[in-house]
Amino acid sequence: MKKVYARPAYCMNCHLCEVNCIVAHSRSRDLFRAYKRENLRGAARVIVEERLPLSVAVQCRHCDDPRCVAGCISGAMVKDPETGIVYCQEDKCVGCWTCVASCPYGAIRPGEKNGRPVPLKCDLCREADEPACVAGCPNRALVFEERRAGA
Amino acid sequence: MPTLSLMPPEFSVARDDNKCIKCLACVRQCGFDAQKYDAEDDRLYTIDANCVNCQRCVSICPAGALTIYKNPPPMRPNAHWTEGHLRNIVKQAETGGVLLTGMGNDQPFPTYFDRLLLNASQVTNPSIDPLREPMELRTYLGSRTEPVSREERKDKTKTPLVPIETPIMFSAMSYGSISHEAFESLARAAKAFGTLFNTGEGGLPADLYQYADHAVVQVASGRFGVHAGYLNAGRVIEIKIGQGAKPGIGGHLPGEKITAPVAATRMIPEGTDALSSAPHHDIYSIEDLKQLIFTLKEATRYQKPVSVKISAVHNVAAIASGIARAGADIIAIDGFRGGTGAAPTMIRDHVGIPIELAIAAVDQRLREEGIRNQVSLVAAGGFRSSADVVKAIALGADAVYIATAALIALGCHLCQKCYTGKCSWGIATQDPYRSRRLNPEIGAERLYNLLRGWSHEIKEMLGGMGINSIESLRGNRLHLQGVGLNEVELKLLGVKHAGEAM
After folding, report:
1. CB contact under 8 A, A53 and B24
2. Where do the TM regions start and end (chain A) (predicted)?
3. Number of domains chain B contains
4. Fewer CB within 10 Å, N- or C-terminus of chain A?
5. Dihedral of CA B154/B158/B164/B168: which sign?
């Protein structure tokens, strides 16, 4: 399956992937409304890890055998058998955060939406052709492509 | 250091709080520490004194919340004591040093390109539509003395001609003065377009030898990175005598820019200043230059044309004549608008002459002496558009070098702070945090697009003149007419005034 791959050599630590992710997952899908009205700060599903001069955007790897899915006590976290995308059925989530604790990449964060707990994790922008973080990366430090296992 | 600085900030950054989303991209991207975030008060603010107007924050801000303004002059306007003079005096009063600057001469001297107009065909000879007819932009660099013959060359010391697919090459910018990413962008674009890039005086990084067939490998007075493999790998060898931005001045790359990879490429110890002296210590005459030219040709078995790069200075025509007679295949002349990573401001702004006058004078002199065919002429120094290129070729150049235009294509905003090594755009820096901001894939695409755009425009202009080959335009000054130029200028340029009968 196509996944988002980070190229740390070109990541310039601008964090615009986070901004684009927040906007893409906001109600309004508008930069100003998302930031000024929806109180979505910190709600990015991609996290830029820094150890300057290096930085790298970390997001869900959509593992073949996802521990977050295995650990989910309510069955909210699932892996789409067709697309391979791991996502959360938000109405089923009970906010136990086992997924957060079990993710070996630290790619899931606890969040909240409309008063309900929601794990903030990358869903590869399921409805779009290309994830917003990749589309908006100003330096092509993120690529969305198919790679062979082990490549 | 005086405790009180009399230097007011040159720029102010205005932030529209209605737009700012506090993503802090500006703080992370400012190379000069002008943008700050106070976490305690959740407040963004600017240290205006640090802003150099490189526009990085403005470009990166996803909300379009930033604008940079030039501050008004700190004192009452005075045509003689300009703001620039005042700032320079204050700076020197505080530092006691030589004023340094980057990029090219920014003073309001006349730009002759803007006073020359191109011809277009009408009914007597028809124009050509380059979208329908073939148009030849390929040109050949090198010495053309040998008569055309089917037999094998008799003169084994003649070097081959080098074809370039467009008369535009990337001028010398050394690895060290620019980042590996910028250097690689130039190399990739030159290869993709079929033209040449120039290594500058810093050698060729080992991982870029794959592009060496499109490299002009430079030999400067410091001899940095020069070895037999380097000379033989390049397509053309260039002896750098002078540079338009700082004629008569050597190169100096400060030790902090000599990182391990730069040191390995330059073949000098890490962290030492790379000093390229003003003269080559084995060249004090044309005869000495001839020795070096033939030493380099001998070292490369006469397979590489040798170029000699000089800056456009007084008496340039006679100097070029001597260089041609010393056996150079190409003469590159760099006008006073040529850029640099670092130069003394006074030298940059007041030494040298315009490339338009220099190239016209050299072409004319070499023609008069009957040796124009022995060398190709390459014009350099401040080419801003395809029209400048066409005008330079009509004045007598075979091709041009562009560098500032190439850097602008890569993101440079001419903030003139290259010498600080803090370039926010990742171009004139060796800091890995900054240099990674320039992805060579993107850089090469942008440079390729620039060459493509200019080449299309050159074809259109040639077509308009009724010419279908760039080589037919070379020195064809009947296609130029001057506007607002005096008789001496018209004579030097070899053009008639607009409206004058041919």
Report:
1. no
2. none
3. 2
4. C
5. negative
